[in-house]
Specification:
The protein has about 200 residues and is mostly helical. The chain has a single domain (about 5-200), classed as Orthogonal Bundle (Hypothetical protein af1432), CATH 1.10.3210. The chain has 10 helices and 3 strands, in the order H-H-H-H-H-H-H-E-E-H-H-H-E. The protein has a 3-stranded mixed sheet.
Length: about 200
């Protein structure tokens, strides 16, 4: 399949971003995740669709824009909805379903119907877990950078400590992703994006 391009992804961000600040924050994060995912893909023994990985990473967080309020903030407790919001945006724009799934299946290390019920998450009941290697890779790469203010890179250990809040078994899922894809080298990206590294 021929996937949309990086420029198509940038234009999609520009269309939905409510402000230049939101665009810079979210689009830059997506660029970093794409670079991390492709770095990991280069070392992966699996036969991956690199173009799907690249564009999926570039649009995985486009749903964040739908959560912004007029004052430029996101309501507490609603951020978990950004994946399904991104899925809806991509499908409304006629983008291929595999890219929309990368949006809806990258939150945490995957949300199950049981997670949604147990945590009373504001997400439609369903299974939002990554199934394909490309979905898993983008989801995993996303964990090594955060859009917090200021944005930061995360080490494997830093996210492993954080993922436990999503419930039992999530640390083991993250560990299996490391076995599948390895750990990225953050230093080359720090040269381009001078964000701090959080190791704990």
């Amino acid at each position: 399949m021929t996937w949309p391009t990086a420029e198509d992804a940038r234009l999609l961000h520009a269309k939905y971003a409510p402000s230049p600040e939101a665009f810079d924050l979210v689009h830059t994060h997506c660029e970093i995740v794409a670079a991390l995912a492709l770095q990991l893909a280069d070392r992966c023994a699996q036969d991956l669709d690199r173009d799907l990985v690249r564009v999926g990473a570039l649009v995985h967080d486009v749903g964040v824009y739908a959560l912004y309020r007029p004052d430029g903030t996101i309501a507490p407790g609603t951020y978990v909805r950004h994946g399904v919001a991104g899925h809806a945006i991509l499908r409304a724009e006629g983008w291929p379903r595999p890219l929309a799934r990368i949006c809806s299946c990258h939150t945490g290390v995957g949300l199950t119907r049981q997670d949604i019920e147990r945590l009373s998450l504001p997400v439609p009941p369903g299974d939002y877990t990554a199934r394909t290697p490309e979905e898993r890779l983008v989801m995993y790469a996303d964990k090594f950078h955060t859009k917090t203010r200021p944005p930061a890179f995360l080490t494997y250990r830093a996210y492993a400590r954080d993922v436990a809040r999503f419930g039992p078994g999530k640390e083991e899922v993250f560990a299996r992703l490391r076995e599948e894809f390895g750990e990225p080298d953050l230093e080359p990206l720090r040269a381009r994006y001078p964000h701090a590294v959080r190791s704990r």
